[in-house]
Amino acid sequence: MYYKFNGFTQRLVGAAASAAYNPQGLKPIVSTESPALIFGTTTKLASDLPATDSFLGKNKVPDLQKLFQKADGLPVHLKRGVPDKLLYRTTMALTIGGTIYCLVALYMASQPRNQ
Protein backbone atom coordinates (compact mmCIF):
# COMPACT_ATOMS: atom_id res chain seq x y z
CA MET A 1 0.00 0.00 0.00
CA TYR A 2 1.18 3.53 -0.76
CA TYR A 3 0.82 6.58 1.45
CA LYS A 4 0.85 10.33 0.94
CA PHE A 5 0.66 13.34 3.24
CA ASN A 6 -2.73 15.00 3.54
CA GLY A 7 -2.30 18.76 3.90
CA PHE A 8 -5.73 19.25 5.46
CA THR A 9 -5.64 16.63 8.22
CA GLN A 10 -1.82 16.69 8.59
CA ARG A 11 -1.69 12.88 8.52
CA LEU A 12 -0.61 10.10 6.22
CA VAL A 13 -3.44 8.62 4.18
CA GLY A 14 -3.63 5.74 1.75
CA ALA A 15 -3.03 6.62 -1.88
CA ALA A 16 -2.55 5.16 -5.30
CA ALA A 17 0.96 4.54 -6.55
CA SER A 18 0.89 7.50 -8.95
CA ALA A 19 -0.21 9.91 -6.20
CA ALA A 20 2.45 8.61 -3.83
CA TYR A 21 5.24 9.06 -6.38
CA ASN A 22 4.10 12.58 -7.30
CA PRO A 23 3.28 14.19 -3.92
CA GLN A 24 1.49 17.47 -3.41
CA GLY A 25 3.50 20.58 -4.10
CA LEU A 26 6.06 18.86 -6.30
CA LYS A 27 5.64 19.32 -10.02
CA PRO A 28 7.18 17.23 -12.75
CA ILE A 29 10.17 18.73 -14.50
CA VAL A 30 8.97 21.11 -17.18
CA SER A 31 11.58 22.65 -19.43
CA THR A 32 15.09 23.68 -18.56
CA GLU A 33 14.99 26.91 -20.56
CA SER A 34 16.23 29.99 -18.78
CA PRO A 35 13.54 32.50 -17.79
CA ALA A 36 13.13 35.74 -19.66
CA LEU A 37 15.57 38.50 -18.77
CA ILE A 38 13.96 40.98 -16.39
CA PHE A 39 16.67 43.61 -16.11
CA GLY A 40 18.78 44.37 -19.15
CA THR A 41 21.91 45.39 -17.23
CA THR A 42 24.89 43.11 -17.20
CA THR A 43 26.83 42.29 -14.06
CA LYS A 44 30.55 41.88 -13.66
CA LEU A 45 31.83 38.57 -12.41
CA ALA A 46 34.39 38.49 -9.63
CA SER A 47 36.88 36.87 -11.98
CA ASP A 48 36.61 39.86 -14.35
CA LEU A 49 37.66 42.38 -11.68
CA PRO A 50 41.36 43.15 -11.34
CA ALA A 51 42.73 41.83 -8.05
CA THR A 52 44.84 44.92 -7.29
CA ASP A 53 41.95 47.39 -7.44
CA SER A 54 39.74 45.62 -4.90
CA PHE A 55 42.11 45.96 -1.91
CA LEU A 56 45.22 48.07 -1.71
CA GLY A 57 46.24 47.34 1.90
CA LYS A 58 48.60 44.73 3.31
CA ASN A 59 47.16 41.39 4.38
CA LYS A 60 47.47 41.31 8.18
CA VAL A 61 46.00 37.84 8.70
CA PRO A 62 49.29 35.85 8.67
CA ASP A 63 50.86 38.23 11.18
CA LEU A 64 47.83 38.06 13.49
CA GLN A 65 47.76 34.26 13.20
CA LYS A 66 51.38 34.11 14.34
CA LEU A 67 50.61 36.47 17.23
CA PHE A 68 47.52 34.64 18.45
CA GLN A 69 48.96 31.13 18.03
CA LYS A 70 52.16 31.91 19.94
CA ALA A 71 52.42 29.74 23.08
CA ASP A 72 53.22 32.42 25.67
CA GLY A 73 50.60 31.48 28.28
CA LEU A 74 48.38 34.53 27.74
CA PRO A 75 44.71 34.15 26.90
CA VAL A 76 43.69 35.23 23.39
CA HIS A 77 41.79 38.29 24.62
CA LEU A 78 44.97 39.74 26.17
CA LYS A 79 47.58 38.92 23.49
CA ARG A 80 47.78 42.39 21.90
CA GLY A 81 49.08 44.17 24.99
CA VAL A 82 47.92 47.38 26.70
CA PRO A 83 44.80 48.12 24.60
CA ASP A 84 43.47 44.63 25.28
CA LYS A 85 44.21 44.90 28.99
CA LEU A 86 42.50 48.30 29.16
CA LEU A 87 39.43 47.03 27.34
CA TYR A 88 39.28 43.88 29.49
CA ARG A 89 39.58 45.77 32.77
CA THR A 90 37.00 48.36 31.67
CA THR A 91 34.58 45.59 30.75
CA MET A 92 35.12 43.82 34.08
CA ALA A 93 34.65 47.08 36.03
CA LEU A 94 31.41 47.88 34.20
CA THR A 95 30.16 44.33 34.76
CA ILE A 96 30.88 44.39 38.48
CA GLY A 97 29.47 47.92 38.81
CA GLY A 98 26.30 46.94 36.96
CA THR A 99 25.87 43.86 39.16
CA ILE A 100 26.23 45.94 42.32
CA TYR A 101 23.80 48.55 40.96
CA CYS A 102 21.23 45.83 40.17
CA LEU A 103 21.57 44.32 43.65
CA VAL A 104 21.12 47.73 45.30
CA ALA A 105 18.07 48.47 43.13
CA LEU A 106 16.62 45.04 43.99
CA TYR A 107 17.19 45.67 47.72
CA MET A 108 15.54 49.09 47.53
CA ALA A 109 12.57 47.67 45.60
CA SER A 110 12.08 44.92 48.17
CA GLN A 111 11.76 47.35 51.11
CA PRO A 112 8.28 48.72 51.82
CA ARG A 113 7.81 52.48 51.75
CA ASN A 114 7.07 54.24 55.03
CA GLN A 115 3.78 56.19 55.16
Automatic annotation (TrEMBL):
One term under GO cellular component: mitochondrial inner membrane
Compartments, record wording: Mitochondrion inner membrane
Keyword Membrane in record: yes
Alphabetized UniProt keyword annotations: Membrane, Mitochondrion, Mitochondrion inner membrane, Transit peptide, Transmembrane, Transmembrane helix
Biological process (GO), any one: regulation of oxidative phosphorylation
Origin: domain of life: Eukaryota
Transmembrane segments: 86-109
CDD domains given in the database record: Cyt_c_Oxidase_VIIa
Family under the similarity heading: Belongs to the cytochrome c oxidase VIIa family.
Name this protein carries in UniProt: Cytochrome c oxidase subunit 7A2-like, mitochondrial
Native source species: Eudyptes sclateri
Gene that encodes the chain: COX7A2L
